[in-house]
């Protein structure tokens, strides 16, 4: 009997590897593709709107490439990013302590808080395949056990800072077109323009998260991990499909 494997058995065809990669990463790839398409669409529509406003003001339109470097485009992008990462940060941190009876978005009702080391598989309860820092008891373990929320918070703050910087630039461009005096960055932080841009995004994100947590109590989506199994009772909490 020939024990030697054929070259094809040792090295599966590349197209199978590609299909496997696409399947195993389809969720992230789909959303990143959608993000890039939406960003491109926003740039195209924003460019047209920006030029329409310039023409209305009696100014010459700008090229698409030039529009991508304007503060108007940058502030529109960053104000959405900061609200999205604020949503994730609040949701990640709030669900440590806050509960919603019957929602798959909530932990079980008897598990509020950070839970025990055994439940979280940290320190001496870490497994052989656990992340290396999960087994530590010094600052590394403390940081790693909160790393998701920390990263979301940092991205939110940086995006919000970028929104404020690009926002004041866009605001001052409008002021100069209208022959009005520009404002400082510090003054812009307390302006109605900055907080209108900020709060209109915050309220929509908070509404979406709250609606998801409550609607998922009574409604189902078969096969989705964001939903309870179709036959689960409405009172089942922390159960995912």
Structure description:
The two termini are 47 Å apart. 62% of the residues lie in helices and 0% in strands. It has helices spanning 7-10, 14-24, 26-56, 64-68, 71-97, 117-120, 139-144, 147-177, 185-188, 192-218. Helix 5 runs antiparallel to helix 8 (147-177) and helix 5 packs across helix 10. The protein folds into 2 domains: 13-69; 71-109 and 149-241, no CATH class. It is mainly α and 241 residues long.
Structural class: mainly alpha
**Count of alpha and pi helical runs:** 10
Biggest sheet: strands, sense, closure? none
- In N-to-C order, the SSE pattern is HHHHHHHHHH
Number of domains: 2
Unreliable residue runs? none
Shape: globular
What amount of the residues lies in strands?
A: under 5%
Radius of gyration: 25 Å
Number of strands: 0
What is the first-to-last residue Cα distance? 47 Å
Helix content: 55-70%
Mean pLDDT: 89
Keywords for this structure?
single chain, 241 residues, mainly alpha
């Amino acid at each position: 009997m020939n024990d030697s494997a054929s070259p094809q058995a040792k090295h599966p065809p590349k197209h199978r590897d590609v299909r496997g990669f696409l399947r195993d990463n389809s969720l992230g790839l789909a959303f990143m593709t959608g993000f890039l398409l939406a960003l491109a669409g926003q740039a195209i529509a924003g460019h047209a709107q920006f030029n329409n406003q310039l023409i209305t003001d009696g100014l010459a339109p700008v090229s698409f490439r030039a529009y991508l470097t304007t503060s108007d485009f940058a502030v529109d992008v960053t104000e959405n990013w900061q609200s999205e990462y604020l949503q994730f940060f609040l949701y990640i941190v709030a669900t440590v302590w806050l509960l919603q009876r019957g929602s798959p978005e909530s932990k079980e009702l008897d598990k509020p808080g950070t839970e025990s080391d055994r439940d979280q598989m940290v320190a001496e309860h870490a497994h052989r395949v656990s992340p290396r820092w999960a087994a530590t008891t010094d600052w590394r373990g403390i940081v790693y056990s909160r790393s998701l929320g920390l990263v979301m918070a940092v991205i939110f703050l940086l995006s919000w800072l970028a929104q404020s910087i690009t926002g004041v630039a866009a605001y001052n461009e409008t002021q100069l077109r209208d022959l009005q005096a520009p404002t400082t960055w510090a003054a812009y932080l307390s302006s109605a323009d900055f907080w209108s841009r900020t709060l209109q995004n915050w309220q929509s994100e908070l509404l979406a998260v709250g609606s998801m947590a409550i609607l998922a109590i009574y409604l189902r989506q078969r096969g989705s991990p964001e939903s309870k199994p179709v036959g689960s009772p409405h009172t089942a909490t922390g159960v995912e499909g």
